[in-house]
Amino acid sequence: MTGADPTDGANAAGTGTADGANAADATRSGAGLSTRRLLAVLFREEWRLHTQLFGGWRFALFPFVIALLSVSGTVALVETGTAPATVAGGLHVLAFGFGLYSGTAGFAGSDMLENVFGRLSLLLSSSTTLPLSRRRLLGAFLLKDGLFYAVAFVLPMALGSVAVDGLSAATPVSVGLFWLSLCLVFAFGMAVTVALIAVRTRGTPPWAIGLVVGLAIVGGWATGSLEPLRRVLVPISGSAVAAGGLAVGTLVVAAGSLLLYDPTYGRPSRTATDRFARISDALPIDDAPLVTKSLLDLARSSGGVWKPFVSVTILLVLVAALVGVVDTITGIAPAPGIFFGGVLGLSAFTTYNWLTQFDSLEAYLTYPVSIADVFRAKRIAFVLVGAPTVAVPYLAAVLWFEATLVDAAVGAVLLAGYALYYYGLTVYIAGFDPNEFLFDAVRFATFTLGVAVALVPTLVAGFVVVPPSAELAVGLGVAGVGLGFVGVVLSSRAGPRWEQRYRNGH
Amino acid sequence: MGAIQVDGLRKSYGSVDAVDGMEFTVDRGELYGFLGPNGAGKTTTIRVLTGQIEPDAGDVRVLETDPVADPIETRRRVGILPEQESPPSFLTPREYLEFVGEVRDLDPERVAEQTAAWADRLGFESKLDTLHTDLSRGQQQKVMIAQAFVHEPDVVFIDEPLANLDPLVQEQVKRFLVSYAAGDNAVFVSTHNIDVAEEICTRVGIVADGRLVTERSLEDGGDDESLLEVFLDRVEREETRDTPTLERLET
């Protein structure tokens, strides 16, 4: 890999015209389209992509749902005694996490995004057919993503600051400042992910990247550097110099990543020994071939079987950091078993998302299987992948936070039951497209409500009664088993529900 | 009774009538070409015939099964090569054909034999252990052709059989399709390629705007008009029927 982009040598002034006579002039590669025009086209594509995927203008409701959740959530937290600084910190953690996630747009061209959007379906792919620099196109694409999500997602999140600061004549200014603060950490999150992807395009193996990231986190923890980092990542409560430093750092990381990014990176053809029959034969179930296909697709795609584990670990780290912040500020620590059991169950969503990234329901309709069969197979695959994926971080959490035996046992029941419940909820509402439904206002609101019904009372109980009493332990255990049952029923009904939709051709 | 029977088939998506009163029959031994412009209703018809979607009205029968009432049984008995490019899969062609074999309850040894035979016939022996997602589109198409025939079905539905294939393999596939239909099977081919249809099909049906506008046998070969001329004439006529031109308005 040379890292040279064949179209990068062309001028980037962007002042030319795109008339037919000039189109063949190789020296003008990509210059016919100004960056402003390119951004405008990318914005239009982004908007149309969302409106097409999520039922037209219904997508426009999504920012309002975010605003509603943000404001109601922060009001509830502040009213129940959570320190405003903790709430502000939590919103910044969310913005940073969302930035990390949004930066995965840099995977464009890899099997990750191709499986979601298909080959050549995005303007981003046009560098393969038009004289446009891939690096410039990616830069514009990420800038567009950053601006789009800063307005559509981060701005509604920032409205939560109203609950933190209270209403006054200065509210518009304080919301604006809070938004800028969230935007900074969001952009930094994006830049970090893009930097990691850029390193990857230089041939660095994913395990080495993961190792370095892990060592950096552990090193920061051990040397006490995480606290200063936390202050930097909440610019609104830090100094202007720190915020400026974060902004400059983000720009440097982003620009460096684009320079490092190798647009010509491509993996050679991969081969594999025949494992299908062996795994399928070892599974004593009717849907063994369907389950085996899901498992192999997951294991052989980018990131391998570690993807769901990394997702859970990110969730664990974010929640553990939040617990630490709450403990530091208020002196209140939750019952770790109940708290982590309830929250880590949410990984059901990410695990199921990974299991559905690499196939589509339509593809199964050419075989003599029903959609209900496919959903049943996905549920088995979910249990096989999800159980060990979530058990290890949970064990680490209860050991690290020194949970009592009763607390750890109740948390384990909650973890299993709630994970099944969240899974059932996801499958029932979103079918085979859990990732896309995050942007559908109605489905997202339904999902959020379903999660809140189970999670909020559990977290409150986890904070109020520490360690859990026998009555609370039994009550939560029953809730875990009951909601697990509800989850199984929901996921069982998802098959017939989605089968009817697909057979109607919708 | 025909291998495929379609009677009064209708299917709409919202206000768009994708299929509007389709009727035809295909017998065993026929290689039936289903020709039409984009959006004529070809793929929708195949999806109904293979039980992937339900029609709004009409009767369909495939090998005496009802794809609406029992889609699994229909799909068990037929082979399907879909138009839509399959999503990238991380199975190798060898594993993918094992997967198809297991889903279709085939004997593993028979699947292994079929895999070897198809790899040899279409020239993908060297790619049998390469991940499907890393294959070229042409190689992926070869594997998809193999999966449609691996259980030696009596009826096969094929959407654009020669897409992405090189000329050598195209010739092999064309010869195979002709010989397969001749072996008392029915092969239903949806295609835009009129030359290919003229070369290999025993009969063609031309569709436009969701309706079958004409059928033509290609076995006797006595017509003066070429298939292309017939296609252009009938499709244009059908489109004109629905479009009020100035001339017609004057009339």
TrEMBL record, chain A:
The keyword Membrane applies. Keywords: Membrane, Transmembrane, Transmembrane helix. The keyword Ribosomal protein does not apply. Residues 1-27 are annotated as: Disordered. The chain crosses the membrane at residues 57-78, 85-104, 146-164, 176-199, 206-224, 236-261, 305-326, 332-355, 380-401, 413-432, 444-466, 472-491. It comes from the Archaea. This is Uncharacterized protein. It comes from Natrinema salsiterrestre.
TrEMBL record, chain B:
SMART domains: AAA. Residues 4-234 form the ABC transporter domain. One of its GO terms (molecular function) is ATP hydrolysis activity. Pfam families: ABC_tran. Keywords: ATP-binding, Nucleotide-binding, Transport. This is ABC transporter ATP-binding protein. It comes from Natrinema salsiterrestre.
